[in-house]
From TrEMBL, chain A:
Organism domain of life: Eukaryota
Entry protein name: Ribonuclease P/MRP 14 subunit
Entry annotated with the keyword Magnesium: no
Listed InterPro entries: Pop8-like_dom (IPR049128), Rnp2-like_sf (IPR038085)
Gene3D superfamilies: Ribonuclease P, Pop5 subunit
Gene Ontology CC: multimeric ribonuclease P complex; nucleolus
Residue span(s) of domain Ribonucleases P/MRP subunit Pop8-like: 23-95
Species of provenance: Paramormyrops kingsleyae
Key words of the record: tRNA processing
Keyword flag Magnesium: no
Listed Pfam families: Pop8
GO molecular function, one term: ribonuclease P RNA binding
An annotated GO BP: tRNA 5'-leader removal
Automatic annotation (TrEMBL), chain B:
Function: Component of ribonuclease P, a protein complex that generates mature tRNA molecules by cleaving their 5'-ends.
Pfam family, one: RNase_P_Rpp14
Protein's UniProt name: Ribonuclease P/MRP protein subunit POP5
Gene Ontology terms: cellular component: nucleolus; ribonuclease P complex
Annotated Gene3D superfamilies: Ribonuclease P, Pop5 subunit
Membership in a protein family: Belongs to the eukaryotic/archaeal RNase P protein component 2 family.
GO BP of this protein: rRNA processing; tRNA 5'-leader removal
Organism name: Paramormyrops kingsleyae
InterPro entries from the UniProt entry: Pop5/Rpp14/Rnp2-like, RNase_P/MRP_POP5, Rnp2-like_sf
Amino acid sequence: MRQADQRQEPAAYERLVYKNASEYHYMKISLIFEKEGKRLEAAFFKQLIISALRDLYGEVGAAFPFDVLKFDEASLTAILRVYSSGLVKLWSALTLLGSYHNESCAVRVTQVSPFLLALSGNSRELVLN
Amino acid sequence: MSMVRLKARYLLCEIGVSEPASLQLLDERAVYTAVKAAVCRAHGDYGAALSSISFAVKYVNAHTGVVFLRCRKRYYRLIWSALAFITSLDSRGKKIPCFFNCLHVGGTIRTCQKFLIRYNTEQLHRMLPRCRNEAERLEVQKAVRSCSLKCTRREEEEEDEWDEDK
C-alpha cells in the first residue's frame, strides 16, 4: 500500500447560511368593509394604506416604500410587497386601520411570506381529491 | 439584584429667530408643545408616545435662545430628527417663526453645560477680531475670562458616562 493512496484530500465544501432569505416580504391581505358591495380602485387602496401608516408612524413612516403588486377590485384582495425591515411597521399599521372616509373597515391578513411563490398556494384552501 | 439606571439624553439646542426681540417671549410651554407637535407629525402616534415618556424642557434662556431638552436614551433620535421640522413657536398667542439648531447631545446636564461654556468662549473668540472699538474689545475679553462652571451638589450626583452603544 502506497502512502499516496492513503493520504486523501480533506473534503472541501462551503456552507452558506442566510438569516433572511429574501429582502422583500409579500403579504396577501383582504379589505373588509362594514357595508357590503363597496368597490375601490387600486390607487385609493394604496392611499388608504399610506394614511394608516401616516397615522401610526408619521411622515417618516408613510414615506416607507411598499408596492401593491395585485389588486382585485371585486373581492378587495391584494398582494403587497415591502422591504423586510418595514414588515412590522406595515403589518401593525394594517392591523390598526379602522376607517376609510368615515366608513368602518378592517384588513384581514391572509398570508405573509418572504417568497412570492408561497402566496400562490394556501393549505387552508387545499382541495384533496 | 442589579442596579438599573434610567439613562437620559439631554439635547442642547439653540433657537434661531429672525428678530432678536421676539426671543423675549420664549417660555417652556411654547417649546414643549412645539416639539411634541413636531414629533407627532414626523413620527406619528408611535413616535409621540415613545418620545414623551420622560420628555421635559429643562431650561430655556430667553436672552440667548438656548434650550435643554431631556428624553430617554433609547428614543432621543425621534426628537432629534423632528427638531428640523419645527418652523414656528406659539407663545402667548403670538407665532414666532424660528428654527432649532441642535448643538450637542449629552448624558447629563453637567456635560451639556461644559460644552456650552466651551462653545460660548469659541463664539466670543470669533467675535473679538470683529470688535469695532476698544471698549467693545475690553468687554468681550472680560466675558471670556469670566466663563466658568459653578459646581453644585445636585449636579455631582448626576454624573454619568456618555457611552455610544446604540
